[in-house]
Specification:
182 residues, 1 helix, two-stranded antiparallel ribbon, mainly beta, 7-stranded antiparallel β-sheet
């Protein structure tokens, strides 16, 4: 009889652990995006991946990238799921088919100041002296579901959180792009 109780208790514990693990896995959606250099001819050389995961603090962003220029780069979720180049004013523009950053312009507070932001604005991406980006960050206003069907863009210059968005193909050069499939 003792063995039956022990077996029943062990079975109940295993079932509880499996249920808790499944619930945790369902909450922690993860997407990994392959990133490529943006070129006038379309997506270029593979430069690594960015892992996005839902957390209780927002969207966790873990880059594993190489071959970028040192410094802080603008980083966005863009409207379209394409990294194709396009033509503007007769010139090829890398990753133009990605469209502009996702979402309308809204006013948010950053460091106590009211500034302009869009839903697709991500925290700046820091690239180390060796051309590698691996510093994790969090976007508290996004989830993995917000990324599906869009492109991830890395810009040549640092983020400009207090400016109005530039028109698609504006002065900000796109240096890398990856597509998040539905």
């Amino acid at each position: 009889m003792q063995n039956i109780r022990t077996l029943a208790l062990a079975t109940a514990c295993v079932a509880a652990l499996c249920t808790a693990g499944a619930a945790h896995a369902a909450q922690a959606a993860q997407i990994t995006v392959d990133m490529h250099l943006a070129a006038a001819s379309g997506p270029g050389k593979d430069i690594g991946t960015i892992a996005f995961e839902d957390t209780d603090k927002g969207l966790s962003i873990r880059p594993r990238l190489m071959h970028l220029h040192e410094g802080l780069h603008g980083f966005h979720v863009n409207e379209n799921a394409s990294c194709a180049a396009g033509t503007k004013n007769g010139e090829a523009v890398p990753a133009l088919a990605a469209g502009g950053p996702l979402g309308p312009v809204t006013t948010v507070k950053r460091d106590g100041k009211a500034t302009q932001a869009r839903k697709g604005d991500l925290p700046g991406l820091y690239v180390h002296y060796d051309g590698m980006a691996y510093t994790p960050t969090v976007a508290p206003h996004l989830k993995t579901a917000d990324l599906k069907g869009h492109a991830i863009i890395i810009e040549a210059l640092g983020p400009a959180y207090d400016d109005a968005p530039k028109p698609v193909g504006g002065a900000i050069k796109r240096v890398a792009c990856g597509v998040v499939m539905r």
